[in-house]
Each structure stands twice: as C-alpha cells, then as structure tokens.
Design brief:
alpha/beta; TIM Barrel; Four Helix Bundle (Hemerythrin (Met), subunit A); 8-stranded parallel barrel; 17 helices; 8 strands; disordered N terminus; NADP; DusA; nucleotide-binding; DUS-like_FMN-bd
C-alpha cells in the first residue's frame, strides 16, 4: 500500500494540543512479528491518537533486496516508528535514510529478539554481547538522519545478566553511539534452550532493575516493556520511568487503548467508542478490499475489541468464521457488529 493513501485520519485539535504535553514514547505498542502490520496499526490508531506505534521488525536485507515494499504504511498511523533488524552499520544507515524519506517518526534497532533465526542473522538479543557494534550501528544511523534512533533491548542474555553487564551495555551504546532512548524488556533472554514464546514468559521480570537503570542514567529516556497488562500498571511504571510499552495485552484486548489518551496523555477528548471505531474502519476496509486485500487480513486484528462487553463472543465468532471466505466484504463486518451492538442496546 502506498504511504500517502487517500484513506487517512487527522488528529482532532483537542487531542493534538494535549499530545504536546508528553512525548509519544510515554506509551507505545510493542513491535510484534506477524501482528503489528499496517492493518493492525491503522486500527489501533482509531482507538488512540497519541500512542507511539511500531512496525513489525523488518530486516535490512528485506528492505534493500526484497521485492515488496517493506516500508509501506498509512499517513494516519503517525506517530509511527520503524523497527529494524540488522547489524551492518552501512546497511542500517541506508535503511534509516529510506525510512526518514518515507516519513517515519523514529528508527528503532532490535536488540531484544532471541529467536534462532534472528541470531543466525547476527541481530536481535545476541547483539547485547557486542555493545561496541551496537554503538557503531546507532552512530551510523544517527549520522544520516535527523529523526530519533532508539534501541529496544533486554536486561541481559544467558549468564551475562548482572547489573554491571547491563550498565556497561547501556553506557557504551549511549556514549559511543549517541543513543539517548532505550526501551528495556525487563527480562533477560536465553539465546539457547528456550523458544521466543518461552523467553517472553519464563525468565522472571525484574522491574526494579530497570527503575535503578533510570536512576543511574537520569539523562537518558527509558521506557519499560514486559508483562504490562493494565493502564494502572502503566501509571505505576511512569512514576519511575519515561515510558511504557505494552505488547500482547494491547493486541488481544485493544479496547483498553480507548482510554490511553485520557488516562496517560491528559486528553480531554472523550474515549473512543468501540462501535464507532468499527464504523470508522469501513472506508479503510473498502479501500483495502478494492486493492485485493482479503477481509480477514484486516479484521483478525479487531477480534478482541469488545472483550468484556455483551456480544463479544458473537462478534469474534462471526468474523472468525466468515471474514476469510472468498468474496467476503464489508457486509460481514456489519453483520458481526450488529450482533454486539444489539446486545449492548439490550443491556442499556
């Protein structure tokens, strides 16, 4: 999809004014492979105007040598960051320049993914063991772009998980690379023996370690990631840190994003209404269908919208059973919405 799509959403003045109070890094949605694609991001933007959205991790090789347009996004997604995977400073710099030219608001380097495939490509969490190389990568990108270049990382890898190791990594990348913003997943990563899923669940969370890191590096912007499930938890983290990144909860229960602008960014605009959000998606869906996109590729991200609301199960079931059928169109979404809207009306 071209970057400058005719389907877009402008920020209401009231929200735009409030967003100036805080950096978009204050609350963000984690980059998640196979999840946070452009359809997901467009949908999430209907729920929250201020949250920083991230692309899935895109490798430098895909951008430079791939046949598809791996930088495609919709103007309505702003603020939006591109997460890159790679370890070659020259290739990363080339991709950063391309991303800035396309209008991305931030470049983020993945130093947190523990999968074998990523390690074989010499990027992701294994780079925590090569702080000087990470610093070179960041500097190479910062030298050619004016937008922020940030790092998403872990608190350690394998048996290299001491606080001193973490401080050495952060200090090297900040001082030698010029990186001033880090998103810290508050778990270490096991580079062998655990799957990516297990690496998100088995290593224990250590929030106090990330809090201490901010105290020891007060001049750096630091956001925390890992296990955040509620906005109340996000508020607690913000007592200690500059930002919070939410992952799977934001995807599986996207309805909570409707409160983010008010609760975390101080917006005075009303929370997004889930029924209105679905209807706001209609022009986008129709545009995508006309481009040959299957309905299910968009609606799969919307399944959890009504979690906790009467009719949510019927909404999920109808979309799941019908959105992937050949020729499925907007009428499938309208029917699914009627199932939940009728329940909501009956409750009132």
């Amino acid at each position: 999809m071209p970057q400058n799509s005719e389907i877009s959403t402008a920020l209401p003045d009231s929200v735009a004014k409030n967003s100036a109070l805080f950096s978009s890094q204050r609350f963000s949605i984690a980059p998640m492979l196979d999840w946070t694609d452009r359809h997901c991001r467009y949908f999430h933007r209907q729920l929250t105007r201020n949250t920083l959205l991230y692309t899935e991790m895109v490798t430098t090789g895909a951008i430079i040598h791939g046949k598809g347009d791996y930088l495609a996004y919709n103007e309505a997604e702003h603020p939006v960051a591109l997460q890159l995977g790679g370890s070659d400073p020259a290739a990363l710099a080339q991709c950063a320049q391309l991303a800035q030219a396309r209008g991305y608001d931030e470049i983020n380097l993945n130093v947190g993914c523990p999968s074998d495939r990523v390690q074989n490509g010499r990027f992701g969490a294994c780079l925590m063991g090569e702080a000087a190389l990470v610093a070179d990568c960041i500097k190479a990108m910062r030298d050619v772009v004016s937008i922020p270049v940030t790092v998403k990382t872990r608190i350690g890898i394998d048996d290299r998980d001491s606080y001193e190791f973490l401080c050495d990594f952060i200090g090297t990348v900040a001082q030698q690379g010029g990186c001033d913003t880090f998103i810290i997943h508050a778990r270490k990563a096991w580079l062998s023996g655990l799957s990516p899923k297990e690496n998100r669940e088995i290593p224990p969370l250590d929030y106090p370690r990330v809090y201490q890191l901010k105290r020891d590096f007060p001049g750096l912007t630091m956001a925390i990631n890992g296990g955040v499930k509620t906005l109340e938890e996000a508020q607690e983290h913000l007592r200690h840190l500059d930002g919070v990144m939410m992952g799977r909860e934001a995807y599986q229960n996207p309805g909570l994003l409707a409160q983010v602008d008010r609760v975390l960014f101080g917006s005075t605009a009303p929370d997004a209404d889930p029924v209105a959000v679905v209807r706001a998606m209609y022009p986008y869906i129709e545009h995508e269908l006309a481009q040959g996109t299957y309905l299910g590729h968009v609606t799969r991200h919307m399944l959890g919208l009504f979690q906790g609301i009467p009719g949510a199960r019927q909404w999920r079931r109808y979309l799941s059973e019908n959105a992937h059928k050949p020729g499925a169109g907007i009428e499938v979404v309208e029917k699914a919405l009627s199932l939940v809207a009728d329940k909501m009306t009956a409750e009132v």
